[in-house]
Design a protein that fits this description.
Length: about 280
């Protein structure tokens, strides 16, 4: 967001479009990635997706206009679609049926470790060496992930099933997840631009607090999604996330954002593991 606004002179609308382009291609290609993972194995998705992500983020250093950056963000989204589907389903393949929520909680610790420490690294690199250093570091991380991807367990290729763009088992939990993610997406996309207006010049500590809280809650409470059941766990998470969104929208002060981050962390800690395990439980 900061790069688009300050370096490429983009409006807040273009900030949203550039950030969101990544999610558009990822969402459109995830059904196809799932099909490939079921028929050709998870490893190809993890390796190929990480490679695409790494190379496309390295190419951000060549983007001198917003359309070029949007195009590269779309490519990054395709890599994310493959890598995430491959890794997430490999974890579920290895987990016992009654511990899938716990497995998803532990797996997602990796994601939130990146959210916790990535902004601190990025801010430090930007301040010392400029934005290109940030893109190079991020791209290299993707290539390292590609190397680690060769450790993905080999699995038996399955007989192709009839292809459905939207599997019925995913529609309900997916719709809930979509709506539940909106408070966090708004926060993550615009907090770097909104922070200075409420006397928060450096938003990295906010993201660090969020990431650390999610890490702690998911490690300590990893069994909660399975113990509560997906309905109770996701319902409680949505209430907490709704409070977080209202705090950010109605309390225009730094204290409101700091408190909202605590609620965001609590809600997001339960939402994804509960809904993901519910989805997986509804398919062969």
């Amino acid at each position: 967001p900061v790069y688009v606004e300050r370096e490429l002179r983009g409006s807040s609308v273009l900030v949203g479009v550039t950030v969101g382009a990544f999610a558009v291609s990822a969402a459109l290609l995830r059904p196809l990635a799932g099909r490939i993972g079921d028929t050709r194995g998870r490893r190809i998705l993890v390796i190929g997706g990480s490679l695409i992500m790494g190379l496309s983020v390295l190419a951000y250093t060549l983007a001198t206009s917003i359309p070029a950056l949007i195009a590269l963000r779309l490519v990054t989204g395709t890599g994310e679609a493959a890598m995430w589907v491959g890794a997430a389903t490999a974890i579920q393949d290895m987990a016992p049926d009654d511990l899938r929520g716990e497995a998803a909680s532990y797996f997602s610790v990796a994601l939130y470790a990146g959210l916790a420490f990535g902004p601190l690294i990025g801010e430090s690199l930007k301040d010392s060496s400029g934005f290109h250093a940030v893109w190079i570091f991020g791209g290299v991380c993707g290539l390292i992930a590609c190397a680690f991807g060769f450790g993905t367990p080999k699995d038996v290729r399955r007989e192709p099933q009839p292809f459905r763009l939207l599997h019925p088992a995913a529609i309900g939990p997916g719709a809930i997840l979509l709506l539940g993610l909106l408070p966090f997406i708004g926060f993550a996309t615009f907090i770097a631009l909104y922070g200075p207006s409420i006397d928060i010049s450096d938003v990295a500590p906010l993201l660090l607090l969020y990431g650390v809280l999610v890490l702690a809650i998911r490690v300590v409470g990893a069994k909660l999604p399975d113990q509560l059941g997906w309905t109770r766990a996701s319902s409680g998470a949505l209430v907490v996330l709704g409070i977080a969104g209202l705090l950010m929208g109605l309390w225009h002060a730094s204290a409101g954002v700091w408190i909202a981050v605590v609620f965001l962390a609590g809600g997001m800690s339960l939402l994804f593991p509960a809904l993901f395990s519910a989805t997986v439980a509804g398919v062969p």
